């Protein structure tokens, strides 16, 4: 696959948007006009001379530096499309071993260089975006450390190079009959080391767990030496070092080899889509299923707005009309919600699970029928394709972004409504309407994640479009930070979420993270600005929200 | 219940040891002679004058100080039985609210006092044993903070005072139809705050998880202020502060209110005991069940030595003979192992689980029959009574202790054999034989815990007995520390395990924990000597084992 230099994924793949889908979006946000893209050549021409001293592992060619300058956040997108990158790394290294990573860290200390670890470059929160710095910046691309180094079948532990991307994780394991089962939407590109460093969660977390449940140990190279975390199934011996390194986003060190808990490939896996009469019945059904511990591999509930948008964006108009007629016939009208779920396991257990699931869904008025299978299978085939949508709508002047959080069940409705309404009204002063819709996914007995997609109209120019996004992001993030929720359930903090982190961690929690970072990296050389706001932090967002969860004595 | 001042649990309960059980122990360790117990009065007479300045919440009466001076580790036991306590706390406080805890911490700073948090006093690793100190020592007993403060049924989160012991946790929840499901063997006395501070695991962790999976958030009072951890189902926003505080064993602060994830009481719960032909078949069966994710609430495999000992210690001789004859008839001879397991859930799911379990056990030669139910029910009725055994054997000059660890499946046999043989041979230079046996419990896809019980003969006097224990503990702990395992799967570090912690955490991991402790408690006022070896540390054990898992650059 040839990777898009200025957008998502495979250059040759295009996700079509059906006309009635585009009409639906325009019915909310109005007519749009596309902005002009910059060319790769014009961006390469801007790349300044590298400030890095020579090293055999360090490449300073312009294209490498352009291709490692940005992730996939909306500001990253605007930078790539406008060609206004601002800052480029001074060079890119492609280490192949832990000892080369060590060598590069030693080089960084010796020559006073900052280091940004780079996995798949899929961050949607600005993790790998360099900020202006008096020190030269080296981006360390771990993509050549992509091998299954060991598979212990008895203990079901696999050792991977940290830069192994999703498809190479699965293909190497499946050749031996195993799976990791970690499928974030970014799976085609994101890497196992990145998943760990930013605490990722995959679509089938209900069976396989979050990356926290998979990460068993491994090696992190820090500026103070190598941290080897042994694999132990569980321990009561003090604070968990694994849990301290997960989510450290390159601030404490760089993962080079990681050991993950794997499973035998399941005998059977099935996905289904069922429609529920309304929001309350849909939400209650999934809550009951997860709180009753019915073995399943995923559940997702699209609210009425998302159900409508997905059916418009994912089907031909004629198909949609047929489905709509059928559902109305069954009594499901405009309030209907869409429940996607999966079972993964032995045929015997899946059958037992499906019996329990059907009983619960029936109780709450679910309508599935023969369509449930077909639509489930469509979902599973398109599950990694959503990010390509931005490419298609962008060409029509429609900007799209998503945001996500997690909260307890008793707060789900309030928070979801607050987020959607914050987005819908954020641009009212500009007379702009925003289209927002939401699904719940990643179900826990305590609560779930809330994932909201929003479309808005590009402004006349890039700066205006960025300004619109800033308003949207800040308003929604403030609602989250003040709303008993996490600033990110599955995408990490990066630079975009750093101003809102204190509301979750508290003054003392922030202090604990900062204390560790300062001890391991006293000169602030590793991924500055990410996770913790540093003085140099680029002004990505407006006023930070400070936490109220804490009282200092 | 009146609590024993110098041993385990309820003063009125006596666990009988059948004669053929005692014979079995003596057949290994030889004839024994009991040591003389000290009286409470004689110990109270030793208590020195308190060095604490007056405070309305601080009690300095001798009996309070005696009853809070020791936990339940073997050295604690010897101290309580010999009356040689060494150090007593200078006073005990019984705060009833978070703000009283804060007030006491302020008092500690103002008057240069050390503070030991005390939950149920059930530590088996020296967590709450005060060490000699120039500063006065205040033990803070949280036992009056024992109320269910809130139950959110929708999000299934309960808020408890940190000092709530197991029975009060469950009775308050069950009155509302809920359970926490955390049942460590110490359940009758240990507290929810203690479980969190020392990363406890309960017997039904296979269904309910370890305390790490239950702890959702709460309040810790530190010397730098209050740390309020919000409840969020899951977060990718940076290192997990919950996981940093769990296992901090009083070094970072004192939990006052804790929020835990609870479940509806299950429709049905059943326990079974099945016999397996040998170790390999038993171990493989449980590994297959857990790796295939069959929903169960517990599994425990006693090796042949433990199966034999348990049947001798837990049944009358006539019962044992009948059972033995039946099992031999079924082809299970001396190599037979005992598998105890439970299912908890809906009747429908339990039935499905039992079908899968029976298939697996049959494949591996398991023998259950009508006895499986009866013996399972006996296990569940006696599940919290094992700790009382020490009282009974002690009166006959037989010392007993246990130790536990966890490791990956591929290392289980090696480590179990090494631990047993380390114990069996540790006293050879004294011409003493030791009886050791083991079970596996707390099954994970990656591995399991290994729990070994050992009996040895009391020496002529207390000092000699302590010396024997030191040798045993050090030898087994060294085997664990060098054996790809944790120094504790479920009992924490305390003072007894602190010398062995570096092998698991590494130089950098230890540094991270120490950095946090120094930042939050720069004067080392909170529970010194626990978790981290401090300079003042009493010389409980011999030479510490330093880690090899780490290389310093």
Kindly describe this structure:
- Chains A, B: Residues 85-265 form the FAD-binding PCMH-type domain.
- Two copies of one chain form a homodimer.
- By secondary structure, chain A is an alpha+beta fold.
- Among the domains of chain A are: 36-141, 2-Layer Sandwich (Uridine Diphospho-n-acetylenolpyruvylglucosamine Reductase, domain 2); 151-264, Uridine Diphospho-n-acetylenolpyruvylglucosamine Reductase, domain 3 (2-Layer Sandwich); 268-383, Alpha-Beta Plaits (2-Layer Sandwich).
- Chain A has helices at 19-29, 40-46, 62-67, 74-82, 98-110, 166-174, 192-197, 205-208, 211-214, 241-245, 279-291, 304-314, 317-329, 347-363, 370-382, 389-394, 412-425, 462-481, 502-520; strands spanning 58-59, 91-93, 114-118, 137-141, 148-152, 157-161, 178-179, 215-222, 225-229, 254-261, 263-264, 268-276, 298-302, 337-345, 398-408, 435-441, 447-457.
- In chain A, strands 12-14-13-16-17-15 form a six-stranded antiparallel sheet. In chain A, strands 5-6-10-8-9 form a five-stranded antiparallel sheet.
- In chain A, α1 (19-29) packs across α12 (304-314).
- The termini of chain A are far apart.
- Residues 536-553 of chain A have low confidence and may be disordered.
- The interface between A and B is large, with 101 and 101 residues.
- β9 (225-229) of chain A pairs antiparallel with β18 (551-552) of chain B, so a sheet runs across the interface.
């Amino acid at each position: 696959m040839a990777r898009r230099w200025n957008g998502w994924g495979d250059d040759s793949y295009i996700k079509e948007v059906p006309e009635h889908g585009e009409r639906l979006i325009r019915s909310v946000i109005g007519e749009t006009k596309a902005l002009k893209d910059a060319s790769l050549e014009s961006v390469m021409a801007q790349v300044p001379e590298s400030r890095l001293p020579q090293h055999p592992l360090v490449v300073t060619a312009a294209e490498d530096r352009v291709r490692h300058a940005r992730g996939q956040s909306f500001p990253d997108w605007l930078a790539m499309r406008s060609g206004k990158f601002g800052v480029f790394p001074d060079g890119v290294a492609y280490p192949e071993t832990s000892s080369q990573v060590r060598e590069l860290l030693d080089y960084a200390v010796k020559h006073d260089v900052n280091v940004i670890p780079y996995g798949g470059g899929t961050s949607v929160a600005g993790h790998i975006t360099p900020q202006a710095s008096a020190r030269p910046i080296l981006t360390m691309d771990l993509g050549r450390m992509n091998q299954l180094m060991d598979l212990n079948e008895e203990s079901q532990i696999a050792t991977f190079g940290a830069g192994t991307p999703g498809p190479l994780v699965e293909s190497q394991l499946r050749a031996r009959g195993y799976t990791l089962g970690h499928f974030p939407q970014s799976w085609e590109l994101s890497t196992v080391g990145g998943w760990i460093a930013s605490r990722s969660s995959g679509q089938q977390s209900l069976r396989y767990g979050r990356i926290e449940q998979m990460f068993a140990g491994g090696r992190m190279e820090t500026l103070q030496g190598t941290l080897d975390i042994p694999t132990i199934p569980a321990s009561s011996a003090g604070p968990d070092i694994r849990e301290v390194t997960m989510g450290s986003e390159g601030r404490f060190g760089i993962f080079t080899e990681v050991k993950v808990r794997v499973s035998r490939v399941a005998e059977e896996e099935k996905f289904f889509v069922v429609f529920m009469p309304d929001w309350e019945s849909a939400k209650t059904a999934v809550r009951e299923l997860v709180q009753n511990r019915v073995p399943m591999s995923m559940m997702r509930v699209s609210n009425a707005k998302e159900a409508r948008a997905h059916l418009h964006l994912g089907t031909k108009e004629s198909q949609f009309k047929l489905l709509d007629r059928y559902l109305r016939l069954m009594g499901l009208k405009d309030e209907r919600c869409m429940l996607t779920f999966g079972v993964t396991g032995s045929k015997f257990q899946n059958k037992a699970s499906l019996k329990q699931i059907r009983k619960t869904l029936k109780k709450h008025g679910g309508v599935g029928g023969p369509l449930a299978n077909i639509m489930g299978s469509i979902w599973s085939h398109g599950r990694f394709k959503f990010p390509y949508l931005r490419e298609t709508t962008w060409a029509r002047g429609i900007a799209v972004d998503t945001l996500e959080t997690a909260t307890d069940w008793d707060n789900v409705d309030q928070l979801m409504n607050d987020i959607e309404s914050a987005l819908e009204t954020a641009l009212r002063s500009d007379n702009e309407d925003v289209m927002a819709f939401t699904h719940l996914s990643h179900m826990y007995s305590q609560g779930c994640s809330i994932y909201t997609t929003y479309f808005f109209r590009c402004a006349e120019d890039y700066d205006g479009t960025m300004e619109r996004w800033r308003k949207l992001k800040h308003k929604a993030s403030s609602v989250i930070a003040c709303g008993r929720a996490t600033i990110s359930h599955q995408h990490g903090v990066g630079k975009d979420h750093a101003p809102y982190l204190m509301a979750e961690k508290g003054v003392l929690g922030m202090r604990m993270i900062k204390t560790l970072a300062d001890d391991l990296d006293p000169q602030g050389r590793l991924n500055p600005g990410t996770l913790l706001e540093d003085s140099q932090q680029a002004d990505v967002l407006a006023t930070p929200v400070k936490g109220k969860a804490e009282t200092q004595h």
